[in-house]
C-alpha cells in the first residue's frame, strides 16, 4: 500500500524538526509549509498558502485532518506533529503497530473527554465561547461522549481513502471549523458519527521505542492565533475599552496618595487603641 509520512508547519509557530529516520526509509516525507524559504535535509518541503489566512491554527488543521484531499495517489498516511521525532523507520512502525484503518494514541494524561474540555478552558487555549458551545452541544445531543476516551493528536496512521475514514475526516474538519480549533475535542464526535473505531495505542505520549515528544525548537508561544471574540470586536469598541482602562488607571494613580494616607492613619489609630 502506497504510504506517505507528513507534517504541517503553518504560521512560523516553531522551527522545523528534522527526521533522521527518513534516511533509513523509502517513504516520502512531506512537510507542508507556508514559509517559501524553508529548507530541510529530511523533509520534502511543499509550499502551500494558508487555507484560512486569518486563522493559521485551523489552516494547519486543514492539512492535518484531511489527508484524502492532499494525497490522492497514496492510500495510507502517517501524520506526525512537527514536535514528534521518529526513532524507527516508519515502515517498521506501521508493520508493528497499525491495525487499520486508524491507529493513534490514547491520551496519557486525560482519561475522559470532559477532562480535556476543562484543561482547554482552564489554560485559556481557545475562545471560551466556542468551547462552551461545543460542550453544550455534546451535553445535549451526545452526552455519552463526555466520558469517552481522549486521544493524543500528535501521531496518526490512517488508511485515509477508505470510505469510513473519509467520512471521519470530513466530520472532524467540520467540527473544528464550527467549534474549538482543538482537534482532540472533536475527534470522539467524528468517530462516533463515522463509525470508526481507533486502534488506540496504550503507550506514553512522550516517549516510546519508536517516537519522542515534544522535541520543540524555538517555539513562539506568542504567535498570533485567531480569536472570534478578539478579531470580530469592532475597532471603535476596542478603543473605547482601552480609553476606559486608561481612565481607571489615571484615577487610581491620582488617588494613590490619599489611599496611602488613610491606610497609615487607620494603622496609627489602631495602635493608639
UniProtKB/TrEMBL annotation:
SUPFAM superfamilies: Nucleotide-diphospho-sugar transferases
Superkingdom, taxonomy of origin: Bacteria
Entries under InterPro entries matching the protein: Nucleotide-diphossugar_trans (IPR029044), TOD1_MUCI70_glycTrfase_dom (IPR048354)
The TOD1/MUCI70 glycosyltransferase-like domain, residue ranges: 41-191
Protein name: DUF616 domain-containing protein
Organism: Gammaproteobacteria bacterium LSUCC0057
